[in-house]
Amino acid sequence: MTRRSFLKLGAGAAAGAGVLPFLRHLPAEAAVPKDTLVVLISDVPNSMDIHRPGTNRPGYQSAINFYDRLLTYGRKTLPDGSLSYDYRKVEPELAESWQAAPDGSSITFKLRKDAKFHDGSPVTAHDVKWSFDRAVSVGGFPTIQMKAGAMEKPAQFAAVDDHTFRVNVVRKSKLMLPDLAVPVAVVVNSKLAKKHATAKDPWALEYLHKNSAGGGPYKLERWDPGRQAVYARFDGWKSGPLPAIKRAIIREVPNEATRRALIVRGDADLSFDIAPKDAKELLADPKLKVVGTPIENCIHVLCLNLKFKPFDDVRVRQAVAYAVPYEQIFKVAAYERGVKLWGAKSADPKTIEWPQPFPYETDLDRAKALLKAAGLPNGFESTLSFNLGLAYWSEPAALLLQEGLGKVGIRLKIDKIPGANWRTKALIEKALPVHLENFGGWLNYPEYYYFWCYQSGRLFNSSSYNNPEVNRLVDETLDAEVGSPGYEEKIKKFLQIGMREVPRIPLYQPYLEVAMQKNVEGYEFWFHRQLVVKKLKKA
Amino acid sequence: MRSGTLTLIGRRLLQAAPAVMGIIVVTFVLTRALPGDPAVFFAGPTADAQSIAQIRKSLGLDKSWPEQFWIYLRDLARGDLGKAVSTGQPVLHELATRLPASLELTLLGLLFAAAAAIPLGVLAATRPGSWVDHLCRLLVTAGVSLPTFFTGLFLVYIFYFLLGAAPAPLGRLHIALVEPARVTGFFLIDSLLARDFEVFRSALAQLALPASTLGIFALAPLARMTRAAMLGVLSSDFIRTARAGGLTSWTVLWVYAFRNAMLPVLTTLGMVFSFLLGANVLVEKVFAWPGIGSFALEALVASDYAAVQGFVLAMALMYVALNLVIDVLYTLIDPRVGVEG
Q1: What is the β-pairing status of strands A434-437 and A300-304?
Q2: How far is Cα B212 from Cα B100, in angstroms, rounded to an integer?
Q3: pTM of the model
Q4: Which fold has domain A3-67+216-275+518-538?
Q5: Which of residues 130-169 of A touch B (CB under 8 A)?
Q6: Which residues of chain B from 38 to 77 reach within 8 Å of chain A, CB to CB?
Q7: Which pLDDT belongs to residue A18?
Q8: Would the CB atoms of B202 and A28 count as touching at under 8 Å?
Q9: Where are the domains of chain A?
Q10: Which of A123, A529, B89, B174 is the Cys-Cys partner for A115 at CB 3.0 to 4.6 Å?
Q11: B202-224 per-position pLDDT tens digit
Q12: What is the pLDDT of residues B27-47, one digit of tens each?
């Protein structure tokens, strides 16, 4: 190339480029058909395998939509008319019926005979056995979750014949059946998976990461990590009524404002898990439907770490609980989209409902008196940390707490911690004196929440709380049947201790918010906080 | 191509080798020095000490640093950049699919910026103090002072939300269309190669807003530099001579003045290109663009070592290539810039 020819070329290219971006585009919008659903979400699944380490929360969607479990949950209508799964009603999915042995040493499941996997092969008890063996063997999250339902080792699972499956009980627990309906307890096509297993990878983690090998209502049509996942209906699905939606396109749109523009303009059918601010404002839009459901067993809390002085003094913790500006946090951080958890009249819980309001409200005089009694009339200094990944509510809450607690002399420095660092600092090392936390339990029982957050040494007990009585009461109730003798009294007792000793101060119970077009029907809230596509239809 | 240019290319590549080696070492050390523990992060929401140890072992993080580095180098030599744990895909695959998306966007943005900024700068220089000059100053100030995500959201609001003229900001193609067969990874080129004009139109329409966003951001330095360089050249003696010689003002301006002002403009163009790639991250978030910026950001948040290392390495190699291209262009534009220069 010579200098002259290059210069001529350059001038031509520059002239052409000036016109390019402004070429009028011809809209390709063919109307999206009735049986296709376009869903917006901030992250798409990063794996098709819920058992794989590193699978993100949206990744649970693949377990939910591509796989069946032995059991599922029923449905109920909430007071506001919206729909929710019903955690008290365990219903059949792959299992037609189940029965506990008279001595309680095992539970036997009869599988439905017409169930098929996506490749047409029948679902057998051997597949269930292989899948459960996998879940308790691969380690990490699935293994822990199975353990919560008292399923710990492969020896517990037996395929009696092709359609009979048995779980041997090592520890009798009311959580076992509900735990068989959580996303982790998927039934995988073991023949297909084993074909792709290797000596180094006996559980076919590589294959199932990229492929769905289930028998659920949808199969994976296309997956572009970081961009979209497309689900196609599996017409041979027998475990429930055939879904109305034939194709669901799950698109990743990281920016909140863009998601909002898209749903308001009608270019998407449903926007999943939107911010409380958008939910509140979109409620006023007559073209849209917004459903907010209180997330079961989940609380946004202010944690005080007893490892750090002066939080080992119960009076200091109570003083903080009286100094929190609850009302303001509810307005500014939650946009009033939540359930209030303060201002209970009595310090003795009347019911075992959970979460329920704590007997505190903003009362600066009481807070000051308590601080004085604790020998800290002039307050003290500490650091309030929050997870940057949850900044949408944590940041305004932290600023209001800084201001509110400042009024009684508690001077807080704010420390923002990036997501990757958060778990190490807050949960593993328990090295944060004051912090904001949002644990939510899948199994909706107060003792399950207490097990993770109040029992000493547990991962989410980031307050380093250790009370032998609470430890004992949680142990005694965790596996016990609801309504068994002493159950309610014990629950009320530990709830009362938690309220009095306040290692965790609840701010409010958050909502899971979903915005959709008016013609989208059947949306159901589920504890796993993911979209269950089979329930939806477009009118 | 002259053999001198080839020598230049060869020598530059050799000179770049130690820099790339340095970058490999530094990113390796830096990723590991970051706070945050990938084993804890990837062990999931309810991990206990045992499962974290299990994950640490499977990620190979239980080995010593020198050992990890050796494994990394060995894999690198085989062209294996490792696996991004957060997406579960090989890093090389992620880069290969995402880099073209970012490059296409950046290049188009740059093209748009150059096409608008250079005439504007030239006009402003020929009429200092006039309304064109003031317009230039206004645009330049606005362009640098508006953050890209704001410009992006603003354009979305006007052209998509209010006017409905732009398509939904949902990535590179309309939702109903299928990607063209992959040749270059640039949808505009691939769709033309496949003679699929509907895809071409859709890709172009999807590009218009994000590319303009980047373009507006890049406009400022380019217009300023063009104006300054032109002012300098226009007041020099040879221009006065040319005018005195009776050449038309068009010839004087574009043939004599502009060519001599191009060198600093080209330098700026190279610089702007590199920081546009950085500014991409926010634009990608707004337009749901499946580019490399958002991938790198997420990898960083998750302390995903292999992904971060792969990204930095890819960027380093690209800058080496970019500098080389600019150097070669210098020799084409200005014969005085020797190959030794």
Answers
A1: antiparallel
A2: 18
A3: 0.83
A4: D-Maltodextrin-Binding Protein; domain 2 (3.40.190)
A5: 139-141, 143-145, 148
A6: 38, 40-48, 50-52, 54-55, 58
A7: 43
A8: yes
A9: 3-67+216-275+518-538, 88-191, 298-511
A10: A123
A11: 899 999 999 999 998 888 888 88
A12: 888 888 877 777 777 776 666
